[in-house]
Design a protein that fits this description.
The protein is mostly helical. Helix content is 58%, strand content 6%. Strands 2-3-4-1-5 form a 5-stranded parallel beta sheet, with helices on both faces. Helix 13 crosses helix 16 and helix 17 crosses helix 19.
């Protein structure tokens, strides 16, 4: 509450290091919240992959557009599903259509690969809705944890927005339904299945057949871009017949011929015929036609590109960047990547963090895995998987160092080979908001891959990679609130640490995971985890680790409303931590004691404890928590009626917190300054502070949060606006 609010008791420090934050954590943090630019409206997302040239599909595209026109006339959203065999060109057709209608949909384009054929199985719709909400400008802290709430918010945001959504490789209609936008939006779904269930939702389902012979020949001609098709028309027809009219197979065969301009089409026909003769049909109709083309293309690859192809098939995520290929090969993979791309074995997945990204068509990935099983030894496959995992661990660790340099205190193992590590902007470790934001963006973008690696670490026999990766991902979770991943990462990390019989790692997973439970509003579960860690520290005579859990347990009891017990734990932590050598954590415990005192109206105690905490935190170089202590002391002085001292502390805090984008803590300082202004009879100045606080609270916790509502109540209590004489404030909220 303003004046003597109940603090969120953020704690910067893990069991083994001084930089964990819990609860509603906003310090040293860079939210994707409202900036001045975003206040005018977030930029529309443009997520569709690039479109490729298609042939022989004008009728299907016209059908899709006709369905859209009818739905628009009738005032309905447009839902279309494109089904067909693997490799028949479903995604290409949907993209070709959606790219042509982009000018009519200024609200943006959303894209998700739903992973029906993914090695990890179909994607959880809740994960996709969360990504869509963030893309639509919802600050991460405002993304609801429950699927139903996410879907409701998604529908509300899209009700008045003209938006295109593409849902690629869907498994079922049930997976698709939560992802359907509201209003006059267009949704395109692709699937191997026909998904008749979408007809219930007003969907129009079209099934793609393989290309007719002439259309397939036209596609082959455009792929070769020379005169061979016109000079050898019968051979061209025979070749596309062997490809069964599947565009993927035609492109792969054509790419191989294009790389061999002196070879006639007859050569490819002969070779592909031999491949068909030796292949057995796979489970899915049509796959054998693609596989024949893939086998031929694979056999024609240079040794280095073939080696990379096999090993990239082991990548556990859906897409990857060029540095992953470097890690797999242990050397520069740019040339080999170009060969695979030119051979139509890789698909362009756009660019992120300054690097090109690629993905496999699911049939191509299965083929690559089969070749790896056949041509790579078990040891070579295991080594490649380890290099992939260590690459992600090294880069996640680098991001962790940039964002939160005090967090990592436990050793990391990157294996025997050199690792490729990214740089995130300028400034080095801890070196600037830009670098920290870039590092956070990298962690967020790579989160699906990081989680995929974490999930396979134990089955792959490298459990230490699992808990270390969960630990390195830590800075992302309290800052951008990926709650399901936070919980899963630390549960899996805990199992991995237990498998390693690493007591210190077990305690780290318990405390970091417990802080996540605390942040998710589950203080009972958090307390169980903190107490388990405390018992483990006692058994190993780790006095420092045990003392740190006192602070954590205090936070859990405070969230449970047990302030007396919380104060007892904070007091013990404040006494024991300095004796164990961690003065900074002891100062944070005193900060928490001050917060309890403030909530009880014990302003002198709060001012004393906050001041003592501030001095130690300042000496430790912890500018964020020093500013928080200034703000807390300022609110205590406000309660004592010492307005000048209150303003001094609150302004000092504001000067530090505002540039950090620590929105929640900044809003608290602004609320305190507003109260100071009210006490001085300056309602217009108070209004300016309250208005800025309201914007920040709404961005950090949502417009309906208790903090935001309290500010509205204070604004209402000030009555009608009227500028008082002589109250212009040179250092007001806008300053």
């Amino acid at each position: 509450m303003l004046g003597h609010e109940h603090s969120d008791n953020d704690l910067s420090g893990t069991v083994h290091g001084p930089a964990i934050q819990s609860g509603k954590v906003y310090g040293g943090i860079h939210f994707h919240g409202e900036t001045a630019q975003e206040a005018r409206g977030p930029r529309p997302p443009w997520q569709l992959p690039p479109s490729i040239r298609i042939t022989g599909r004008s009728a299907e595209v016209s059908t899709l557009e006709g369905h859209r026109a009818r739905a628009t006339r009738e005032g309905h959203p447009t839902l279309a599903a494109v089904s067909g065999l693997g490799g028949v060109g479903k995604t290409a057709v949907a993209l070709a259509w959606l790219h042509t209608i982009r000018p009519h949909f200024p609200g943006g384009q959303l894209y998700a690969d739903l992973g029906a054929q993914s090695p990890g199985g179909p994607v959880d719709p809740g994960e996709v809705v969360g990504r869509f909400l963030r893309a639509l400008g919802v600050p991460t802290p405002q993304v609801p944890p429950a699927l139903a709430e996410r879907v409701a918010l998604y529908r509300s945001l899209t009700a008045d927005r003209r938006l295109v959504v593409m849902l690629d490789d869907a498994a079922t209609a049930a997976q698709v339904r939560p992802l359907l936008p509201a209003g006059q939006c267009v949704t395109a779904v692709t699937s191997r299945r026909r998904l008749p269930g979408l007809s219930v939702d007003g969907g129009h389902v079209i099934h793609l057949e393989p290309l007719g012979r002439e259309a397939a020949v036209e596609l082959l001609d455009s792929t070769l871009a020379d005169s061979r098709v016109s000079e050898q028309p019968e051979e061209a027809r025979a070749l596309v017949d062997l490809c069964a009219g599947l565009p993927l197979a035609v492109r792969i065969a054509g790419a191989r011929l294009a790389a061999r301009p002196r070879h006639g089409i007859t050569t490819m026909v002969r070779a592909l015929t031999e491949e068909h003769d030796r292949l057995e049909a796979l489970a899915i109709d049509g796959d054998h036609d693609v596989r024949a083309a893939l086998d031929l293309s694979y056999q024609g690859l240079p040794a280095g590109a073939a080696h990379l192809y096999r090993l990239l098939g082991l990548h556990p995520g859906r897409e990857f960047g060029g540095p992953v290929a470097d890690a797999v090969l242990g050397s520069d993979a740019a040339d080999a990547l170009d060969v695979l791309y030119d051979a139509s074995l890789l698909i362009d997945a756009g660019q992120a963090a300054g690097t090109e990204r690629y993905r496999f068509h699911d049939l191509v990935r299965l083929h690559a895995v089969a070749q790896a099983d056949r041509d790579e030894s078990p040891g070579a496959r295991a080594a490649a998987l380890r290099r992939i995992g260590y690459h992600y661990l090294a880069n996640a660790t680098r991001a962790e160092e940039v964002i939160d340099p005090q967090h990592r205190t436990m050793a990391r193992d990157y294996g025997p080979d050199p690792v490729v590590v990214a740089e995130f902007g300028d400034g080095g470790a801890g070196g600037g908001t830009g670098a920290a934001d870039a590092a956070l963006d990298w962690l967020e973008h790579e989160l699906p891959n990081l989680m995929a690696v974490l999930r396979i670490a134990r089955p792959a026999g490298i459990p230490a990679l699992g808990w270390q990766l969960a630990d390195a991902m830590w800075p992302l979770f309290p800052r951008r609130k990926f709650y399901p991943e936070w919980r899963e990462a630390h549960r899996e990390g805990l199992l991995a640490a237990e498998e390693c019989d690493d007591g210190a790692a077990v305690c780290r997973m318990l405390t970091s995971g417990g802080l996540g439970e605390l942040d998710m509003g589950c203080p009972e579960q958090a307390l169980v985890m903190f107490e388990r860690a405390a018992d483990a520290f006692l058994r190993t005579d780790d006095a420092l680790g045990h003392a740190r859990t006192l602070n954590y347990r205090g936070l859990a009891h405070q969230r449970l409303g047990e302030t007396d017990r919380a104060a007892g734990f904070f007091g013990r932590a404040a006494a024991e931590l300095p004796d164990c050598g961690d003065r900074r954590a002891g100062a944070l415990a005193r900060f928490n004691l001050a917060d309890v005192a403030l909530s009880r109206g014990l302003y002198e105690d709060a001012a004393r404890e906050a001041g003592a905490a501030r001095e130690v935190l300042r000496e430790a170089g912890d500018t964020y928590n020093t500013a928080r202590a200034d703000a807390l002391a300022g609110r205590a002085y406000l309660g004592l009626g010492l307005l000048d001292r209150a303003e001094t502390g609150l302004r000092a805090a504001l000067d530090v917190l505002r540039p950090m984008s620590a929105d929640h803590e900044t809003a608290r300082a602004l609320g305190g300054l507003a109260l100071v202004s009210e006490r001085r009879g300056q309602p217009e100045v108070a209004r300016r502070y309250y208005r800025e606080a309201l914007i920040l609270y709404s961005g950090a916790g949502g417009p309906g949060s208790a903090d935001a509502q309290e500010v509205r109540d204070r604004l209402d209590a000030l009555g009608p606006e009227a500028r008082e004489n002589g109250t212009a404030d040179d250092g007001g909220a806008a300053g």
